[in-house]
Design goal:
Elements: H1 12-22, H2 27-40, H3 56-68, E1 74-78, H4 86-101, E2 105-109, H5 113-119, E3 123-127, E4 130-135, H6 137-144, H7 149-157
Parallel strand pairs: 1-2
Antiparallel strand pairs: 3-4
């Protein structure tokens, strides 16, 4: 997620302008891009607030926003919704689904099996650092004769489920 602590005294708007300039987004496109991202990630209410005053979910949306400013082809997100309120989580998941529809590649790590099931075309399950299964959610459910990825995971690790 990155550390926004050092940006506590500026607003998301100022941070996004700074990132846009860093990524050499065309000057006349910066404001439109910020407005668009603010709309997508529902940041309008706090776009001009100090970052230091934002909630965890709002801060996480700012972290994601600054990675979007230059419209990248790839996203690598690590536990992007971990510890977030349900609204922020849903906004982030919906955003990733829409980017995926645009043909973007999203590499997403999560321990929330329901998220993986909802948003991923392909899943790689890892236990103790080893890949234990990979495929589409449907292929993994079929192979393990289960109805969801959570059950599939436990079917794959067998009796080794004393630690999650």
């Amino acid at each position: 997620s990155g550390n926004t602590k050092i940006y506590n005294s500026i607003s998301p708007y100022e941070l996004l302008r700074m990132c846009a300039e860093f990524y050499e987004v065309k000057k006349d496109e910066i404001d439109n891009r910020i407005q668009e991202i603010s709309r997508i990630l529902e940041m309008d209410k706090f776009l001009y607030s100090r970052i230091g005053n934002l909630s965890t979910g709002q801060t996480q949306r700012v972290n994601i926003a600054r990675c979007l400013i230059h419209d990248p082809k790839y996203y690598i997100l690590d536990e992007a919704t971990s510890g977030l309120d349900i609204i922020s989580s849903q906004i982030i998941l919906d955003f990733m689904k829409s980017e995926k529809k645009k043909g973007k590649c999203v590499l997403y790590s999560t321990h929330y099996m329901e998220e993986a099931e909802n948003i991923c075309d392909r899943v790689i399950m890892i236990n103790h650092g080893n890949i234990i299964k990979e495929g589409t959610p449907a292929e993994i459910r079929k192979a393990t004769k289960t109805s969801n990825l959570r059950d599939a995971f436990f079917a794959l690790i067998g009796s080794d489920n004393n630690e999650e």
